[in-house]
Amino acid sequence: MNVLVAGGTGFVGRYLCAELHDRGHDVTALARSPDASVVPSGVTTVEGDVTDRDSLRTPLEGLDAVVNLVALSPLWEPEGGNEMHDRVHRQGTENLVDATEEAGIGRFVQMSGLITGDEDLTSYHRAKARAEEIVRASDLEYVIYRPSIVFGDGDEIVGYTTKLKQMFAPVGPLYPLPGGGERTFFQLIHVGDLAPMLADGVEGDEHANETYELGGPKVYSLREVTELVFESKGRSITIVPLPMSLSKVGMSAMGAVPGFRLGPDQYRGLKADNRVSDNDVGVFGVAEDEMTTFEEYLGVK
Ligand SMILES: NC(=O)c1ccc[n+]([C@@H]2O[C@H](COP(=O)([O-])OP(=O)(O)OC[C@H]3O[C@@H](n4cnc5c(N)ncnc54)[C@H](OP(=O)(O)O)[C@@H]3O)[C@@H](O)[C@H]2O)c1
To answer: For the chain, which terminus, N or C, has the lower number of CB atoms within 10 Å?
Structure first.
């Protein structure tokens, strides 16, 4: 198959491009500034911006499937503010879906997020939910994936905890976390487990028009994730619970500090439940106990 992976130079994209390439497909990664050195050899890159409909026409010629992995991280406030989530995730998906239909390509794989709870929680959640609606309303054969937080080399979750630590460097080994990190939960999934499931959706008719929730084998609190990351670096920290109400004020205020792009949406995001209600990994022939845990990845315990 000829497959275009929009956002193919990103964290998940690199693994998916490698998986598809290894399965014998012709793969092209699309991004605004595609760096050919980050994708596996044999994968080609092309420039395109999902917010600019015209830039998608040429890259979409002669394809069999399109995967949408374009992302703005919900962990930090994007340049241009949280409204950018609507532009990139909703409008970007609409542009890509339109261009895919116009090019006569049959299959579309959409990467969403775990948005089954309160979809109005943040601009990210709202835009991801609207993007799903656009995909479902199209004439395309689609597969929608809703993974929990993804970890692996090049991920954001380990980088996030480290950056928060830098932010709180003046308080030494103390590590303030909203609600002590015990009110935010993730069912972390390893990118090496996820990529083959995405590739199955690109290839297989049996997944047509399905929506899958995917999580790893264990649920972790933000506190556990943070402690494990520092344990893996041989460093000990003392987590100090910050009252949620104080965190709201604090994170909103930090939105004004250059370099620390946190705002009210990022505070609200801490209330999002990143646990799957029904783990669909079995659909892909994967058992939870065969999947990589966060501890195994970090080499602790
Ligand atoms: N990582 C997670 O924990 C996680 C969890 C749940 C869901 N997801 C979803 O999984 C997908 C992939 O996430 P990721 O972590 O791999 O993201 P990522 O590492 O931030 O990669 C984002 C990719 O999108 C490209 N991109 C950004 N804006 C673009 C635009 N306007 N037009 C075209 N390309 C654009 C980036 O390249 P350029 O900057 O060069 O354009 C890059 O290739 C996203 O849909 C994300 O919401 C991720």
So the answer is: C
